[in-house]
Amino acid sequence: MNTPVAFTVTALMLLSGRAETATPAPIAESAVTERSKALVPSPPWQKGDERGMANTLGAGTLMRCGFYLGSVGAKTYELSYVNSNTMPQSPFGKHLEFHASPSTSLPGTRHLFNGEQVLGGGEPGQQGTQFDALGHFAFYDEAWDGKGDAPVNGAHYYGGFTQSEVKPTPDSFLLKLGVEKVPPIITSAVLLDAKTYLGKGEALKPGQLVTATDIQSMLNAQGLAWRGILPGDVVYIYTGWGDGWTDPDIAKTYYTMGPGLAVDAAKYLAARAVVLIGLDNPFTDAVAEGQLAQKAKPPQGMEQGLPFIIHHTNLAINGIHQIQNVNLTAIAHDKVWTSCTMILPLLERGHAGSPVRPVAVGVSH
Predict the structure, then answer these.
(1) What are phi and psi of 292, to 5 degrees?
(2) pLDDT 10s digits, 88-112
(3) What distance in Å separates the CA atoms of residue 337 and residue 335, rounded to the nearest whole number?
(4) Is there a contact between 352 and 174 (Cβ–Cβ < 8 Å)?
(5) Of 25, 149, 220, 284, whose CB neighbour count within 10 A is largest?
(6) pTM over 0.70
(7) Which DSSP helix (H) or strand (E) runs through 131?
(8) Does residue 114 contact residue 101 with C-beta atoms inside 8 Å?
(9) How many CB atoms neighbour CB 289 within 10 A?
């Protein structure tokens, strides 16, 4: 049997559960990863596309996922926080308030049932561990000066869609690029441990940027240089900021600042056609202390009129989805650098975001 075939047989045995006596060797992972590459589509996508980099998902990404699902010693990790009335909440989304309905009994039956409601106009899609649809962000050709009405009719969205095509009236839901256009994201994930390799064991500082060079350094440090970042991957970045998520949120500091992704890192990941980027931070973008109160400048400047330039770059330009407030503490502690991740936002027509419960399955290193 020649060597490539031997690698393939080993991988298939792992997927079928017959290789039960040893941890999968990196050489088997490498073989499956290499075979998957030819099966993953590459951009550009067809005109009118609303899926963005989710077009990379399919046979190739499922092949990589299957390897991790079938690996001996694989463990499932929750990557979200529990939603509650006392969790940290974004100042950019309407406050989310759950209300428990009274227990209800049905006359003439033995049944009792319970339920809940969301009160106060809260935004489930923009609070907690949440997923951004591509229609969440758009942009103007020039910065708005704040005078008069905002020039919404001149806004541009991912794929060249206009405001009239996406949200023609203030009270309309998204006609294009809504969260219901997102397929189930079941694919390989890479976890980068910025807390360890950049913060030297401490959470990254407010406004601190994770750069393209940092990503390359972490890949090397974590033994992933052979693999790198592949088309169709999800990239999770553990900054340590999420370790400060507490419930009840007494300190009220979690959502006031935080580290985030640098522009060159966003471009680096876009060039590799990743499907989604998730950080354990509130904004994906870096936010300096005092920035939200307009007492400090954005870490990446304002010369382009884009204080949240990572949202702009990922969503409106490159079609890369985002998750904010990913709970990466446990999976980073176990050093699960590669895994199969499953992300299913709710199918809510025309919504710009969704609460989401991502999970990952992989083996500790």
Answers:
(1) -65, -25
(2) 998 888 888 888 889 899 899 888 8
(3) 6
(4) yes
(5) 284
(6) yes
(7) strand 130-132
(8) yes
(9) 15
Do the beta carbons of residue 191 and residue 331 sit within 8 Å?
Answer: yes
Topology annotation, domain 39-82+175-362: Glucose Oxidase; domain 1 (3.50.30)
Structure tokens that stand for 89 in this block: 């909440």
Q: Which residues of 37-56 are buried (b: 16+ CB within 10 A; e: fewer)?
A: eeebeeeebeeebbbbbbbb
What distance lies between CA 176 and its chain's CA centroid? 20
**Beta carbons of 97 and 120 less than 8 angstroms apart:** yes
Q: Name the more confident of 10 and 69.
A: 69
Pairing of strands 260-261, 209-210: parallel
In a 3-state reduction of DSSP, which class is residue 133? coil
Beta bridge partners of 99: 117
Chain mean pLDDT for the chain: 91
Listed in sequence order, the residues at least 6 apart from 99 whose beta carbon sits closer than 8 Å to its beta carbon are 116, 117, 118, 119
Do the beta carbons of residue 192 and residue 218 sit within 8 Å?
yes
Domains of the chain, by residue range, sit at 39-82+175-362
Spatial contact of 245 and 271, defined as CB atoms under 8 Å apart: no
| Pair type for strands 338-343 and 234-238 | unpaired
Which candidate, 126, 138, 92, 54, places its Cα nearest to that of 292?
92
Residues 351, 179: contact at Cβ < 8 Å?
yes
Instruction: Answer whether 358's CB lies under 8 Å from 198's CB.
Output: no
> Cβ(128)–Cβ(85) under 8 Å?
no
- Token code pair at residue 14: 């792992």
